[in-house]
Design a protein that fits this description.
The chain has helices spanning 44-51, 74-84, 100-110, 115-128, 145-157, 175-192, 203-206; strands at residues 2-11, 18-28, 33-37, 59-64, 67-68, 85-89, 163-167, 195-200, 211-216, 219-225. By secondary structure, the chain is an alpha/beta fold. The chain has a single domain (30-56, 74-225), classed as Rossmann fold, CATH 3.40.50.300. It has a six-stranded mixed β-sheet, with helices on both faces. A four-stranded antiparallel β-sheet has the order 2-1-4-5, with helices on one face. The longest helix has 18 residues, at 175-192.
């Protein structure tokens, strides 16, 4: 799926240079559910930007599906993001006065997909994300936090990406609702075989995944299977 080879990221030059990532090396296979965990300032957000083709490393290589993303132009990086990566953010980033269906169909509009096919794919993605069909025509600002995050997950799925990147996806949710969202990611990974990388600073959240990569001061300090995985127990929204 993806491979990072001795990645480093430096901002600035000379005496003002700041090294944010140092010698980052790991591989994620198809169908894995991985957490990248670290405190604020650890470099995990910079690493997520590189994995999401939002930025490129200063040194080293990043391969996604065998393609070296490190050397691509801005336009080529944009194409990678559209075709291969689905993003889920802490703040949902939904159009609050648009319906659930319209929010999920939006990426397909930019991709030039026909209206009928857009709606079909959006309905499938929302079902995969675990949102009840009765909510499809609701405005997004009429939903609970957990429901909005499920819509955001559906939007990430609608282009059938190879990789889902979730950046602190439970950060704005209470514990109970966060469990529902984590269960959704577990279901997508286990039943749909989606490759998911979850970025978090919370150990409890990371322990819902199968593998935990810990990063501190720009370096990987551990990369181990999660032997004490927590299975989320969803409740009705």
């Amino acid at each position: 799926m993806l491979e990072c080879r001795n990645i480093g990221k430096t901002y600035g030059e000379g005496d003002l240079a700041v090294s944010v990532l140092k010698d980052i090396t790991f591989t994620v296979k198809d169908g894995e559910f991985v957490a990248i965990m670290g405190p604020s300032g650890s470099g995990k957000s910079t690493l997520m930007n590189i994995l999401g083709a939002l930025d490129v490393p200063t040194v080293g290589k990043y391969l996604l599906g065998g393609q070296d993303v490190s050397t691509l132009s801005d336009d080529e990086l944009s194409d990678i993001r559209k075709q291969k990566i689905g993003f889920v953010f802490q703040s949902f980033n939904l159009l609050r006065r648009s319906t659930v269906l319209r929010n999920v169909m939006l990426p397909l509009v930019y991709a030039g997909v026909s209206p009928r096919e857009r709606e079909k794919r959006a309905r499938t993605a929302l079902t995969d994300a675990g949102l009840a069909e009765t909510h499809f025509d609701h405005l997004s600002n009429q939903l609970s936090g957990g429901q909005m995050q499920r819509v955001a997950i559906a939007r990430a799925l609608v282009n059938d990406p190879a990789l889902i990147l979730a950046d602190e996806p439970t950060g704005n949710l209470d514990t109970k609702t966060g469990e529902i969202v984590l269960h959704t990611f577990q279901e997508l990974n286990q039943k749909r075989r989606r490759t998911v990388i979850l970025i978090t600073h919370e150990r409890y959240v990371a322990e819902h995944t199968d593998r935990i990569i810990q990063i501190r001061d720009g370096r990987i300090i551990s990369d181990e299977p999660n032997k004490n995985k927590i299975e989320a127990h969803p409740e009705s929204l």
